Amino acid sequence: MSIDHGRIVEELKETSKPDPARVREVLAKARELKGLDLPDVAVLMRTTDRELVHACYETARFVKREIYGNRIVYFAPLYVSNLCKNDCAYCAFRAENRGLKRKALSKDEILRETESLIEQGHKRVLLVSGEDYPEGGLQYVFDAIDAIYSVRTPKGSIRRVNVNIAPLTLPEFQRLNEHKIGTYQIFQETYHEVSYRGLHPRGPKADYRYRLETVGRAFEAGIADVGVGVLFGLYDWRYEVLALLGHVRALEKSHGLGPHTISVPRIEPAEGSALSARPPYAVTDAEFKKIIAIFRMAVPYTGIILSTRESIPMRRAALDLGVSQISAGSRTAPGGYGEGGSGAQFSLGDTRPLNEVVYDVLKMGHIPSFCTGCYRRGRVGKDFMDLAKPGLIKQHCLPNAMLTFAEYLYDFADPDLSQKGFDVIRVMLEREVVSEPLRVKVGELLRRVRNGERDLYL
Ligand code: SAM
Ligand code: SF4
Q: Nearest 5°: phi and psi at 77?
């Protein structure tokens, strides 16, 4: 696995404004929902004409609606530990940041954090950790996953644990896979190798190639859903977009499967990191919107994840441009959902509780989803992609969104949100679920949810 640095540099040499006819040709290709190639993406990145940029946004919106409908999936991170032996220049957890209060949650603390997330209404958790583990090593993470899954409360349980931890070896990934994780996430941070080396001077993470090859090892270990990402602000975003796309295409070629998700974090201020206060290649809001729209068009079947790093207005804009999963009500310190918690990884742009975000997203015309159906039905990796590609995703995901949103409304919403939410579900059932037998089936399942049954999915 390698990134074709020479080819990317060659694509980026052309800096002139593209011919509008060529831009329209690329957008027409994007509407076919088959993705875009590197030269197409290079054209879109050079497009600055207002009208054409607007046309890019419109096309991204079209692609998103066609494939995903109007559902937005929710999750929350659970930071179990901020111990770390790396020294990433942008992160508060880096080993050199001696002032940071270090903490690895005990099993009891993990259980309590999980209960808090369930009380908010969450069903999906992203376990996050620095790259150093208390006694027992990696077993600590495995025990943490089991602990999260073990929590049962009158308000439900966590049904999918995704994981964002340091790269593992093949046998370690095989052990991780035994713990029924959802997606394994790993961000390359920057694909630009020279910059990478400067930003990661010490520790296991200093090995660029080992990190780049992580997705392949995870696939080989049987983990079918893997998430990739770039930490925007470390290097030229144009380089990163082309390189990430190159990474996706290389994985498709070598493993017959691309990533399940792409995350698009932008650097946020982090305690003890001067670089994070002044990112060397800060990405503007306008550029960030373009990045999301381009990813949506270029890899239409891969989910795009946006975290609470972003401000409320940016989160609203991004939903429309192609983001399909968001975190909400997040804290980035171990123990952050309990009494305070200290030692956060970075500061947040959106600190609203989950119910406020749900309300806001609903008002914008999106339906909140807490679905974990695909993963539990075994529709992961290639099976998921095969389902997604002909546009069938809507037939499963939209009904599942309605069912899990109805659960949320019964269990967590105030009367106002509840009324608005059920109005939306009713309209969707009539307008979006076009097949009559499916509509009858979903209507029946919704009645069962109203009668107190939980965890129903297609
Ligand atoms: N320690 C593991 C690693 O680095 O791969 C996994 C967890 S790490 C806490 C998760 C991600 O946080 C990193 O991959 C990085 O992209 C992101 N991150 C680190 N510092 C950040 C900052 N200042 N602002 C935004 N995101 C940051
Ligand atoms: Fe450690 Fe990950 Fe932060 Fe780097 S990004 S310092 S590896 S927690």
A: -80, 150
**Distance between CA atoms of residues 72 and 322, nearest Å:** 10
Identify which ligand lies nearest to the alpha carbon of 273.
1
Residue nearest to atom 20 of ligand 1 (CA): 91
Residue 380: predicted pLDDT: 65
CA 188 / ligand 1 centre spacing (Å): 10
**Cα 115 to middle of ligand 2, angstroms:** 26
- Residue 268 alpha carbon, nearest atom of ligand 1: 24
Q: Please tell me the number of the ligand nearest to residue 232's CA.
A: 1
Whats the size of the chain, residue-wise? 458
Contact 15, 47 (CB under 8 A): no
Q: Following DSSP, what letter does each residue of 424-442 receive, concatenated?
A: HHHHHHHHT--SHHHHHHH
Q: Residue 171: its pLDDT value, please?
A: 97
Strand ranges (DSSP E) for 60-108?
71-81
Q: Output the pLDDT for position 384.
A: 66
Give the pLDDT confidence score for residue 145 in this predicted structure.
98
3-state secondary structure at position 210: helix
Residue 164 Cβ inside 6 Å of ligand 2? The answer reads no
**Per-chain mean pLDDT for the chain:** 92
CA of 235 to the centre of ligand 1 (A): 15
Question: Does residue 135 register a pLDDT over 90?
Answer: no
Task: Please give the residue that has the higher pLDDT: either 305 or 376.
Answer: 305
Question: Nearest ligand to the C-alpha of residue 267?
Answer: 1
In sequence order, the β-bridge partners of residue 124 are: 160
For the question of whether the overall pTM of this predicted structure is more than 0.90, the answer is yes
pLDDT category of residue 389 using cuts at 50, 70 and 90: low
Instruction: Output the residue whose Cα is nearest ligand 1's atom 25.
Output: 267
Confidence of residue 1 (pLDDT cuts 50, 70, 90): confident
**Ligand 1 geometric centre to CA of 255 (Å):** 26
- Any idea which ligand is nearest the CA of 204? 2
CA dist 243 → 5, 42, 192, 283, 356 (Å): 8, 11, 8, 16, 36
Whether ligand 2 lies within 6 angstroms of the CB of 86 is answered as yes
The total of other beta-carbon atoms located within 10 Å of residue 126's CB is 24
For residue 409, the model assigns a pLDDT of 97
Query: Does ligand 1 lie within 6 Å of residue 347's CB atom?
Result: no
State pLDDT tens for residues 160-187. 999 999 999 999 999 999 999 999 999 9
400, 393 Cβ separation under 8 angstroms: no
Q: Is the CB of 164 under 6 A from ligand 1?
A: yes
Does residue 211 line the site of ligand 1, with CB under 6 A? no
Q: What span, in angstroms and rounded, lies between the C-alpha atoms of 367 and 428?
A: 9
- Going from the C-alpha of 361 to that of each of 54, 70, 140, 313, 372, the distances in angstroms are 22, 10, 36, 12, 19
